[in-house]
Amino acid sequence: MSGRDGVVRVIGMGVDAVDIERFRRSLARTPSMRDRLFTPVELEYVAPKADPVPSLAARFAAREAVMKALGVGLGAFGFHEVWVTRAVSGAPSLAITGAAAALADAAGVGTWHLSITHTDTVAIAYVVAAA
Q1: Has residue 11 got a pLDDT over 70?
Q2: Which residues contact 117 (CB under 8 A, 6 or more apart)?
Q3: Is the pLDDT of residue 2 over 60?
Q4: Alpha-carbon span 87 to 103, nearest angstrom
Q5: pLDDT at 4 (0 to 100)
Q6: What distance separates the 2 farthest-apart alpha carbons in the chain?
Q7: CATH at 45
Q8: In whole angstroms, what is the distance from residue 90 CA to residue 44 CA?
Q9: Quick check: is 1 in a domain?
């Protein structure tokens, strides 16, 4: 995350928290939301879980945190243009395409850092966009 001179250049940071029960109610009220918000890769990852909603809420929070790190609002890019992937080790990372990638390129983002977590009640994502 550091440049040739060893200095880290942070472009932006974003954090988002999602109330899991509220998110659960939204998904129950509008089942098509799952496909509108999440990629097949994400839905496949959460499918075997006894309760996939906390993991989905964390992934939604990651999208919102990316928007905040880029300094843009809802609608700046489509929900399928940012998604959470997992390394073999289990570490989460971001995949960015389309308008989201164009915004990141214009801002000079070369590296993304993501941390996601959830409890029984809240899901949180923290994103750092760096040069």
Answers
A1: yes
A2: 58, 123, 124
A3: no
A4: 25
A5: 65
A6: 52
A7: 3.90.470.20
A8: 15
A9: no
In a domain, 5, yes or no: no
Q: Whole-angstrom Cα distance, residue 100 to residue 81? A: 6
Q: Could you tell me if residue 90 is inside a domain?
A: yes
CB contact at 8 A, 57 and 123: yes
How far apart are alpha carbons 122 and 75 in whole angstroms?
23
Task: Give the mean pLDDT of 58-73.
Answer: 97
Instruction: Evaluate whether residue 76 is within a structural domain.
Output: yes
Q: Indicate if the pLDDT at residue 33 is higher than 50.
A: yes
For helices 53-70 and 98-107, what crossing angle results, to 10°?
40
In this prediction, residue 1 has a pLDDT band, given cuts at 50, 70 and 90, of very low
Domain that residue 79 falls in: 10-130
- Give the total number of structural domains in the chain: 1
Phi, psi for 73 (deg, rounded to 5): -105, 180
The reported pTM is: 0.92
Report the b/e string of 77-90 with b at 16+ CB within 10 A: bebbbbbbeeeeee
